[in-house]
Amino acid sequence: MTISLGLACVWLVAANFRAMFPSKDHLWSFAYVMIALGLPILVGVYIENGIWAAAIVLVMGGWIMRWPVYYAWLWLKKRVS
Questions:
Q1: How many domains does the chain fold into?
Q2: What residue intervals traverse the membrane (predicted)?
């Protein structure tokens, strides 16, 4: 396993663990931090392992961070149409 895949696994475990506990801002501040940390990890996975591994990590991250992805999709849909 490469370093970037190991970091991606740690990121996924940390995001899942943190999502188990409630917060006053509904985890949005944590989501911003995790997105900022996840993007360089995703680039590292792409560089070290290729596009398919990066696509799998992206889908897994989107599965965990579903509300930011949903609101980004709504924003993009509003901008395009």
A1: 1
A2: 29-47, 54-76
Q: Phi-psi category of 26—alpha, beta or left, where left has phi over 0 and alpha has psi -120 to 50? A: left
Structural contact between residues 4 and 41, judged by C-beta atoms closer than 8 angstroms? yes
Burial of residue 14 (CB within 10 Å: 0-12, 13-18, 19+) is: middle
Give pLDDT tens digits for 28-74: 888 899 999 999 999 999 999 999 999 999 999 999 888 888 998 99
Closest CA to 65 of 34, 39, 42: 34
Q: State which residues form the domain around 74.
A: 3-80
